[in-house]
Write a structure and sequence with these properties.
Distance between the termini: 65 Å
Shape: globular
Largest sheet: 9 strands, mixed
Length: about 600
């Protein structure tokens, strides 16, 4: 199609990349439904997509990746800042010039026999003062159709961009040139031997090579919306966070907005789409993964969900764990590395109580119950439009965003961490977020039960030094009115008793904790000061109708001084990684915590 912009900087860049990658042609994406249908039809014809049964799951598609291309490749993900110290100890660093020289050799002719698609996209509602524009160049039709769902794509983005140079430049190639246009292709082309996902914070660039999967290839997601945006946010005084956003409405019609950060396997998407158990209370979704937040004229923090879709892990998602996610997937969705049924529908582990009698797994093999093999890859994904979520909030695309009342941090801890804890102030809350921890599950690398600290759940996604990132949080507290900043809470739905049984029922019952947080923000619910923060009084959490005795509730809200003192050396060790860049305010908070634990009567 025709070029849709007069932006000379953009045109020059597209021409430069085309000269290096040597595609057969350049296609400018317009973001229309006609374009989406044309490309999905072509993907079906090429064997990449299988069209699912329209009577079961309308306008939806199934695909399988190459077995060598199934997940993020952390070891080949680099932050190529100009100075190594700016990448910090939690990122892989490479010299930007040396990395680009290496990649140029791989990109040389890498798109021969293919088209290069120019995808103009907006992270956030088009024209929102919080949104940002990106341009992704890719030779993957799979990326184009997924970006159609995950971002706002097309000519309207270019119109809003105009002749501005303020756009993130993303280059992606699967690294699988075809010697001639008639050379046979494979359903999932990639370059298994050479995978690189590289970020250039100062120049706002992303260069990705070799992988066609997920966040490696959909550059608007983690690469732009977190790694590059976190740097932009630091430079420009806003926040780009790995947080869901939800709207909670009381029976009286009062509304609060909550943003929450959790590491993987802690129920983040489930919380974003929760069906509350409390009569009259309502939870609606703004976003399930990422929040961009800027300060309004009233001094409050306003958040948007920069994404237009959900890119979720499929296994474990069910009507029991997340019914609203399942309802969202009823149509217009793309399923990658799940299993497929003979009837033309998809399936994955825990999707239903019983496995279907016959499946074809993600490796194309027939599968029957009792075989001992899994049907879906553990990282199997769905891509689905957020607008289809039955509990999507009406203001989810409001360009000005929603005013955040509370932040939640949390993790999976069997002991020590109580059900809910309110920070004393912004700096104390920043401290709690900086040491947030989760125990590794069987699905994660490392020893089961081992505690991993993941500040604000940003460890894999922060585009600069984590010490500077924490300093940015502290700076926000120093420069803004604490009374207008979100209150900060630390939650833990995963505490167990001495027999290893869950103390809290979780899922929809988590609305009871949200109700207490809501009422704290409204100045109504009671709390008591403890050495670690403000906890609910014994009767301030609504447990009416729950099969939960006073003993269990006491254990859920227990602050064991000895357990907490045993945690502080690990917190100190965690802080040592950040060296001199660790803010003094957080060192002070850790020292005060130890003082309060040793002297419980110590003044808060």
């Amino acid at each position: 199609m025709a070029v849709m912009t007069k932006n000379q900087k953009l045109l020059d860049w597209v021409e430069e990349i085309a000269a290096m990658c040597q595609p057969d042609n350049v296609v400018w994406c317009d973001g229309t439904r006609e374009e989406y249908d044309r490309m999905t039809n072509a993907l079906v014809k090429s064997g990449t997509f299988i069209r699912l049964n329209d009577d079961i799951r309308p306008n939806s598609f199934f695909c399988r990746s190459d077995p060598a291309d199934v997940a993020r490749v952390e070891e080949f993900t680099f932050v190529c800042s100009e100075k190594e110290e700016d990448a910090g100890p939690t990122n892989n660093w490479a010299d930007p010039k040396e990395m680009k020289d290496k990649l140029r050799k791989l990109y040389d002719g890498c798109m021969k026999g293919r088209s290069m698609y120019v995808i103009p996209y907006s992270m956030g509602p088009i024209g929102s003062p919080i949104a940002k524009v990106g341009i992704e160049l890719t030779d993957s039709p799979y990326v184009v159709v997924n970006m159609h769902i995950m971002a706002r794509v097309g000519s309207e983005v270019l119109r809003v961009l105009g002749e501005s140079e303020d756009f993130v430049r993303g280059l992606h190639s699967i690294g699988a040139p075809l010697s001639t246009p008639k050379t046979p292709d494979v359903p999932w082309p990639c370059n298994a031997e050479n995978k690189y996902i590289t970020h250039y914070p100062e120049t706002r660039e992303i260069w990705s090579f070799g992988s066609g999967y997920g966040g490696n290839a959909l550059l608007g997601k983690k690469c732009h919306a977190l790694r590059i945006a976190s740097v932009q946010a630091r430079d420009e005084g806003w926040m780009a966070e790995h947080m869901l956003i939800l709207k909670i409405t009381s029976p009286e019609g009062e509304v609060k907005y909550i943003a929450a950060a959790f590491p993987s396997a802690c129920g983040k998407t489930n919380l974003a789409m929760m069906e509350p158990s409390l009569l009259g209370w309502k939870i609606e979704t703004i976003g399930d993964d990422i929040a961009w937040m800027k300060f309004g004229e009233d001094g409050r923090l306003y958040a948007i969900n920069p994404e237009a879709g959900f890119f979720g892990v499929a296994p474990g998602t069910s009507m029991a764990s997340n019914p609203n996610a399942m309802r969202t997937l009823h149509a217009n969705s793309i399923f990658t590395n799940c299993a497929i049924t003979p009837e033309g529908d998809i399936w994955w582990e825990e999707m239903s109580d019983d496995q279907p009698e016959l499946l074809f797994d993600w490796l194309r093999r027939p599968l029957t119950p009792g075989s001992g093999r899994t049907a879906a890859h553990p990282n199997a994904r769905f891509t689905t439009p957020a607008r289809q979520c039955p509990v999507i909030a009406e203001e989810w695309e409001d360009p000005k965003g929603v005013a955040i009342d509370a932040f939640l941090f949390g993790g999976r801890r069997a002991t020590t961490i109580p059900l809910v804890n309110e920070a004393y102030n912004w700096h104390h809350g920043t401290f709690l977020g900086s040491v947030m921890s989760s125990e590794k599950t069987a699905a994660a690398a490392g020893k089961v039960g081992e505690v991993r600290r993941d500040p604000m759940a940003m460890l894999p996604f922060c585009g600069y030094h984590m010490g500077d990132y924490l300093a940015h949080w502290v700076k926000i507290g120093n420069e803004h009115d604490d009374s207008k900043l979100p209150k900060i809470y630390y939650v833990n739905w995963f505490r167990k008793d001495a027999d290893g049984k869950w103390l809290w029922p979780g899922f929809g019952e988590n609305s009871r904790v949200l109700k207490w947080i809501f009422e704290r923000c409204a100045g109504r619910a009671e709390a008591q000061d403890t050495p670690i923060g403000r906890l609910p009084t014994p009767d301030s959490i609504d447990i009416e109708g729950l099969d939960l005795d006073a003993k269990d509730m006491k254990e859920l809200l227990k602050v064991d001084l000895e357990e907490w003192l045993n945690e502080t050396p690990d917190m100190q060790k965690h802080y040592e990684k950040f060296g001199k860049k660790l803010p003094d305010e957080l060192v002070w908070e850790l020292e005060r915590l130890e003082e309060r634990l040793r002297e419980p009567a110590h003044k808060v």
